[in-house]
Amino acid sequence: MAKYDLNTKEQHFATTRLEAEAIVTDAKEDKHLTSWKIQEKHNKFGEYFLVDLTFTYNTPKGLMEVE
Q1: Cα–Cα dist 36/52, whole Å
Q2: Exposure winner among 6, 8, 63, 67, fewest CB in 10 A?
Q3: Sequence-ordered list of residues with C-beta below 8 angstroms from that of 65, at least 6 positions apart, any chain
Q4: Where are the beta strands (DSSP E) in 5-45?
C-alpha cells in the first residue's frame, strides 16, 4: 500500500510585494489552498518576500489506497 501526502507546503521567493501577492492570487484559484503567508525579509542585498502556501487534500482513504 502506497502512502500519499494529503498536506502539501510550498515556499516561493519574490523580490517585490506585488510579485508576492500575484503568487497568492494564482494559488487562490486552487480549491485546496487552506492558508498562505507573506513574510518580508531583509539582508545585505535588500528586501525580499517569502510566500508560504499550504494545500490540504481531503481525499477518502479508499481512493488513496493502491493495490
Answers
A1: 5
A2: 67
A3: 1, 2
A4: 7-14, 33-43
| Amino acid found at 36 | W
Cα–Cα dist 48/13, whole Å: 7
Average of pLDDT values for 7-24?
A: 94
**Which runs of consecutive H residues, i.e. helices, occur in 5-55?**
17-27
Closest CA to 12 of 27, 23, 22: 23
Per-residue pLDDT tens digits for 21-55: 999 999 999 888 999 999 999 999 999 999 999 98
- If phi > 0 it is left, if psi is from -120 to 50 it is alpha, else beta; for residue 46 that is left
Which residues lie across from 11 on neighbouring strands? 52
